[in-house]
Write a structure and sequence with these properties.
With 898 residues, the chain is mostly helical. The chain has 45 helices and two strands. Strands 1-2 form a two-stranded antiparallel ribbon. The radius of gyration is 34 Å and the shape is globular.
Length: 898
């Protein structure tokens, strides 16, 4: 570096490099300018000056200088290396790799460049190149531990675990007998455990066990040692030894569910699908009874039997499990039991048990068969449990009566208000649910979870502005809204995006969805620093797990929701493109003078209101942009706060395709992925890709109503296409004709017959009938009345219950709303839509959408909240029904004695 400079300037060049490494950028710039006064065309100095400017956020100057430096000295490895570092800082990894390779052509043994290249290869999963670079590093510097480990890991990632083991053993052969010293015991132990895991992965299980026991004294993490040992024993089929070890692990942690599962495997009583014979259930019951005697304080040993026990034994075990938790007052009890509702018959047993416990406590103050009196709070928790139970079963009216009784009993318990809010949400009264959640929040202003739950309810009720003001109560000082983005608060951004989408604000909705997508990009980038850190600290098992997690990162539910939301926005943008200025002027010219005047006044008022809001936000931002030390915190200004620029895309479907490809790659077993694929490709139109989406839907769930819709829509569109002209069109046509008979639903049947057969198979399902009706109207528009009749003749058959407190309807509120929108917007029958609305208002009396008599949409409803209050000073927004249900006035006379 700086070899072509005189000694004085060469020392100055070394100072530039040192200043860059120690982040003394001004000092480095000064030294660079001193050199450039004498040697203005010195390429390496120009490049280092550019790199320094890049660290000072002067990117355009940086690129200009680095390119100039490279132009002046194309054969300098320093210039190419710096150019690569510049690209790396902008996450242009492929370009950075090209630059590093050019640098290595000039200086093939440069360790720094090789190390930087290996990090990028690991980041980009160029595993073959990663192995080669790591081998070169080891050859150049074999006395460095990190190079041995890096070479082993590279082979492991390249699916060659045995080769990795050989490298680690070769490394161990270079160590002295008394290695490791005390300060390196943890790192060496981690390396040994990593080697054992490699042997296990390569099916050398016996060898792995021998190696593990041989190196026991050198492994510091004894818990990991025991877990690895028992895993190997189970793989080898040595179940007796495994059972002994699992019992030892349970004595250390009797609440670890994995240990119980492992013990069941060792005693031959484990089933993947949790289905057991009566004899196996008997044996499992005996096993857990013996374990319960040993670990009577363990919650897991009492909860796990509820999953496999049946009938009276289940009831007895559930009774013994629930009673102490009700007495103690555990709010999460129902969440703990909720998975049992998926087991046949257990929900009915639990309902009888809950009712029996509640009745006994209410009438005698004791549990059945007990002499000890229960505290008064036990009745309240029993009512709380029952309310959640009925909410889960869709009996919202009974759930509300139980939760109201619990609130009347003890109006100071916040969990009751949160539960009532959830019940109202499920009943369809989103405004009242938001009001209840806000009341719960006001009862404990320091609880972040309750605040977050309140924000979620507000967003579900489309009260976005109020939700934002509530959310920022728990953000740091400064630009509060941006803090939510900086904290990667994805649930908020998703809920906010969904709300904006429902309201038709596609710009803001897209902005929120794409913000979540950016978080995932940031998470992917965050792994970069760990490529060198984990090799240095020897956390190798965790490092490999992290890389595997990163490889499946985009299959996460939040990313799926964000990508699907963005695709829906782009589809809607394609279907309803924003009007151009010329179109708006044309519409204005058709208006009467008085109408034009009114419209202009309305626009001026909207502009003034927006300006006032912006000024208010600027004042808040300016006031809060100063830290406690008085220094101003400079935050980047969002140039597109409302997402208007995001709507200015030439081809919305090509933008949608970007996210669709990610979903197809990472969520191929999701029905929604292929539904969106169908919608996008039908519009393009990409006929074969649309057919592929239909085939995937048939593979996943051929009986789903949306699958039926897509199947009929696709072949109806194909039948209505013009005759093929070009060779490509003829080839596609022949392929479609060949594929059609292979689809069993269409085999030797017309589309009308296929639609009718689907109806016969699913006569009792509302959503299937509505899909058939929609397709009937699409295939035969003259049969609109028949299509509407299909929906109107649907019956809400009661679902199976134990008959304790009335039947439960099978119709879901969400499905009924979908059918209502279908009648309004697709079948275009307003009379039928109104009848449907009146009919559903009886089934869902709390629903705002249907204007149920008990919803807050009705002016005299007991649940009509006083919407619009934005006071967060500590007072909640009450509802008329809450006069005795916990308004804050109930706390006025509350005193706490010391």
């Amino acid at each position: 570096m700086g070899a072509s400079l005189p000694p004085k300037e060469a020392n100055l060049f070394k100072l530039i490099v040192k200043s860059y490494e120690t982040k003394q950028y001004k000092k480095g710039l000064k030294a660079a300018d001193t050199i450039l006064k004498k040697f203005p065309d010195h390429g390496e100095t120009l490049s280092m000056k550019g790199l320094t400017l890049n660290c000072m956020d002067r990117k355009s100057e940086a690129y200009e200088l680095v390119r100039l430096g490279l132009k002046n000295d194309l054969k300098s490895h320093v210039c190419w290396h710096v150019y690569g570092l510049l690209y790396r800082s902008d996450r242009e990894y492929r370009e950075a790799i090209k630059c590093y390779r050019n640098a290595l052509r000039i200086d093939p043994d440069n360790i720094e460049i090789l190390r930087d290249l290996s990090l990028l290869q690991a980041q980009m999963r160029d595993l073959t190149g990663f192995v080669e670079t790591r081998q070169q590093l080891l050859t150049l510097k074999p006395n460095h531990r990190m190079n041995w480990i890096g070479f082993a890991v590279s082979h492991h990632l390249n699916s060659n675990a045995l080769k990795a083991v050989e490298i680690l053993e070769a490394y161990e052969g270079t160590l002295e007998e008394d290695f490791p010293p005390d300060n390196e015991r943890c790192e060496h132990g981690e390396m040994l455990l990593y080697k054992i895991s490699l042997l296990e992965e390569s099916s050398s299980t016996e060898r792995a066990l021998d190696e593990l026991r041989k190196k026991e004294s050198k492994i510091v993490d004894k818990l990991a040692y025991k877990e690895q040992e028992v895993s190997l024993l189970v793989t080898l089929g040595r179940f007796e030894e495994g059972a002994t070890l699992y019992r030892g692990l349970l004595s250390m942690n009797p609440d670890n569910y994995r240990y119980y599962e492992g013990l069941q495997k060792c005693v031959g009583l484990y089933s993947e699908n949790a289905e057991y014979s009566p004899a196996q259930i008997e044996q499992l019951d005996d096993l857990y009874k013996s374990l319960a005697q040993q670990y009577n304080w363990s919650s897991a040993v009492k909860r796990i039997p509820l999953d496999f026990l049946q009938g009276d034994k289940f009831r007895e075990a559930a009774d013994n499990y629930i009673r102490p938790l009700l007495t103690k007052g555990v709010p999460s009890l129902f969440s703990d039991l909720s998975s049992l509702y998926d087991h046949h018959g257990k929900a009915d047993i639990l309902e009888k048990l809950f009712l029996e416990l509640e009745h006994s406590i209410r009438t005698t103050g004791r549990y059945p068969g007990r002499e000890e009196k229960e505290p008064p709070s036990t009745l309240m928790w029993a009512l709380f449990l029952l309310a959640q139970h009925y909410d889960r079963r869709g009996q919202c009216d009974i759930a509300l009566s139980k939760i109201d009784e619990a609130i009347e009993h003890t109006p100071t318990v916040i969990d009751l208000y949160s539960a009532k809010s959830r019940i109202l949400k499920h009943a369809g009264n989103l405004a009242a649910a938001a009001a209840l959640a806000d009341e719960a929040r006001c009862m404990d202003l320091a609880d972040r979870y309750i605040n977050s739950e309140c924000v979620k309810r507000m967003l579900q009720a489309d009260q976005v502005a109020l939700a934002e003001k509530t959310a920022v109560l728990f953000t740091k000082d400064g630009d509060q809204h941006n803090n939510l983005h900086d904290m990667q608060c994805m649930w908020y951004e998703l809920a906010s995006g969904e709300s904006y989408f429902r309201q038709g604000d596609l710009g803001r909705a897209l902005k929120k969805f794409l913000a979540v997508e950016k978080h995932y990009a940031d998470i992917t980038e965050d792994q970069f620093d760990f490529h060198s850190y984990c090799l240095r600290k020897m956390t190798l098992r965790t490092y490999v797990e992290m890389l595997k997690f990163q490889d499946r990162l985009h299959s996460h539910a939040y990313f799926h929701k964000a990508a699907a939301g963005a695709i829906r926005c782009y589809i809607k943008l394609y279907d309803y493109p924003p009007k151009s200025t010329a179109d708006e002027d044309d519409e204005m010219s058709k208006l009467l003078p008085s109408q034009k005047k009114k419209l202009r006044q309305k626009q001026r008022k909207a502009e003034a209101r927006a300006k006032k809001e912006a000024e208010g936000k600027n004042e808040e931002s300016n006031a809060s942009n100063f830290s406690k030390t008085g220094k101003k915190n400079v935050k980047p200004v969002d140039p597109d706060p409302h997402g208007e620029k995001l709507l200015q895309v030439e081809d919305p479907l090509s933008e949608a395709t970007k996210y669709l490809k990610l979903l197809q790659k990472n969520s191929p077993d999701s029905l929604e992925t292929h539904l969106l694929s169908f919608e996008v490709n039908v519009r393009k139109p990409k006929v074969l890709l649309a057919l592929q989406a239909v085939q995937q839907l048939l593979r996943l769930n051929a009986e789903h109503p949306d699958t039926h819709r897509c199947l009929i829509k696709f072949f109806h569109k194909v039948d209505s296409m013009a005759a093929p002209v070009t060779d490509t069109e003829k080839l596609i046509w022949r392929f479609l004709e060949a594929e059609r008979p292979a689809i069993s639903q269409l085999h030797e049947k017309s589309l009308i017959e296929t639609n009718y057969v689907f109806l016969q198979k699913h006569q009792d399902s509302l959503m299937h009938r509505s899909a058939v009706a929609e397709m009937l109207y699409a295939l035969q528009p003259d049969k609109k009345a028949e299509a509407v009749k299909l929906i109107e003749e649907s019956t809400n058959n009661p679902g199976p219950t134990n008959g304790a407190l009335g039947p439960v309807g099978q119709w879901k509120l969400k499905d009924c709303i979908t059918v209502h929108k279908l009648l309004e917007t697709v079948l275009l029958d307003q009379t039928a839509a109104l009848k449907w609305k009146e009919r559903c208002a009886e089934y869902f009396p709390y629903s705002i959408h249907f204007g149920g008599k008990l919803s807050s949409a009705v002016s005299n409803s007991p649940l009509n909240p006083e919407n619009g209050s934005e006071d967060h000073s500590g007072g909640g927004r009450g509802t008329d029904s809450l006069a005795s249900n916990g308004k804050l006035e109930a706390f006025k006379d509350l005193t706490i004695s010391a």
